[in-house]
Amino acid sequence: MLKVGHVVVRPGRKAGMDSVEIPIPEELETVPGIPMVSKDIDFYSREYPLLRQQVEHGADTEWAPSVGTPAMQAYHHEHQATMEEFYPLMNRTGDLQPTGTASGDDVTQLIRDKSVEMGFLDIGFTNHDLRFVYQDRKDHVKYPNAICIALEQDFAETQTAPSMAAEHGHYGTYEIQAPMGLRMVDYILSLGYHAQLHGPSNHSAATIPMFVAAGLGQLGANGQLLTPHAGARCRLQIITTDAPVIFDKPEDYGFHAFCQVCQVCVNRCPGRALMREKIWWRGVEKNKLIYKRCRPVMSRYEGCAICMKVCPINKYGAKAVMEYYIETGQVLGKGTHDLEGFTLHDESTGRYTTGYFGPGELPTFDADFFKIPVGTRENAALDVLLDHIDNKNDGLDKEADEKALFNFRDRLRKIRGGEVSDSTMF
Ligand code: SF4
Ligand code: SF4
C-alpha cells in the first residue's frame, strides 16, 4: 500500500452527482499543473509565436482528406457543412454587446452552475494567457478572463477507435458543443458582460495550458489534456470575458509522474509518434508528440485516437486508477486486451496493414507511409515547383516549365488572397 500524498476533490461529472475524492500517491506528486519555466514561455511566445495547425501544417491539412476512406471523406464533408453554420456565429461573439445589466458582483458560481445545468463535464476559470494565443488570432481575441469548458465525448464510441463510430463521437461532440458554447455566451451577455467563444476547431489559442492553469487536468504523454473524469475523452472550448470571476488554481493529479510509469499510449501508438521520455519544449516539461508520425496514421485510419482509447484515465477515471495504484503499485488494465487491444480497419489505398493488434503487437509501415506534404500551404506549393525543377527540368519542354511556374504563382495567389480555414480538417 502506497502512502497518499494529498487528495484532490472534484465536482461529480454530472448534475446531482456527488463530488469525487481522488487520492494522489506521494510518489507521484510533482507540481500543480505542469513544470514550466515562465521566462522561457515568454521568450518562445515572443520570438516564435504559436501558429494554428491550419497555418503551420497547412500542407497536410489540405492533403489529409485525400487519403481518408470514402466513408471518412463523406462524413467529414457532412460535418464541415454542419460547422460552417457555426463558425461565423462563433467568430462574431467578441463584438456582441451585453443584453443584461452588470451587477459588478463575482459571477463565478452562476456560470459554474449554468455549465452543470447545460451538461458540460467540467469548468474552470483562469487568466487568458496571451502567450498561448496563435499569431494570426492576436487581433481577434478580446477580454482578459478565460472560462475553460469541457464536454465529454461518448465513451462507447471512443472505445471502438479507430472507427467511423469514434469519428462520429469526436466530430459529433463538436457539433453539440458549438451551439452549447453559443448558449453559454448568451447567458454571460445576459449577466451584463462580454463573452467571446473560441472553439471547437476555430480556437484562438493553445487550450491545454489554460485548462491546466484552471485546474481541470494535466498534460498526458499522449499530448492531450487528461481530465480526472474522462482522461482525454473530452473536447475543449474557451470563452474569454470581462465578467468578474475568481480564478481557479492548477492541481497535481499525479498524472505528470504517472504517465512515466504507465506508458500504455506510448507502447500502443501505431505511428511510434509518442515519446517515452519528457523533454523541455517551449518552456514546459512534456512528452512531445512527433506530429509527422501521427498525422499519416490518423488521416488514413479513421482518426486513429488509439492513444485516447487505451488511456486508463479515459477508461476507468482518475479515482479508480489512483486507488488501484496505491493498493498495488500497478497500472489498472495495463497489459490487458480490454484496455490495449485495437483494430485497424481498411484504409483507402489497400496497401497498408489491417486487423486486430493485442498487447505487445503493433503494425509496421514502410517509409512511403510517412511521406506527407510538410509545412505551410506555401511550402507545399514550392515543393511541387522544386520537384519539377529537380526531376523534369531538362530544358526541352518550355511549355511544361511555364505551366509549372504559372501553377505555382496561381496557387500562391489563391493562398495569399484566401482566408485560413476555421477547420483543422480542410
Ligand atoms: S492518434 Fe494514433 S498515431 Fe497519433 S499519437 Fe495517437 S495513437 Fe499515435
Ligand atoms: S495512456 Fe498512460 S501514459 Fe498515456 S496519457 Fe494515459 S496515463 Fe499517460
Mean pLDDT: 95
Give the cofactors and ligands: iron/sulfur cluster
Strand order of the largest sheet: 3-4-8-5
Low-confidence stretches: none
Q: What separation lies between the terminal Cα atoms?
A: 50 Å
The SS-based structural class is: alpha+beta
Largest sheet: 4 strands, antiparallel
Total strand segments: 12
Q: H/E order of the elements? A: EEHHHHHEEHHEHEEEHHEEHHHHHEEHH
Helix content: 40-55%
What is the global morphology? globular
| Percentage of residues in strands | 5-15%
Number of helices: 17
Radius of gyration: 23 Å
Question: Could you characterize the architecture of this molecule?
Answer:
With 426 residues, this protein is of the alpha+beta class. Helices cover 41% and strands 13% of the residues. The protein is built from 17 helices and twelve strands. The strands form five sheets. A four-stranded antiparallel β-sheet has the order 3-4-8-5, with helices on both faces. Strands 1-2 form a two-stranded antiparallel sheet. A hairpin with a 2-residue loop joins strand 9 (279-281) and strand 10. Helix 4 (70-92) runs parallel beside helix 7 (164-190). The longest helix is centred in the middle third of the chain and has 27 residues, at 164-190. Bound molecules: iron/sulfur cluster (SF4) (2 copies). Residues 220-222, 226, 258-259, 262-265, 310-313 line the site of one iron/sulfur cluster.
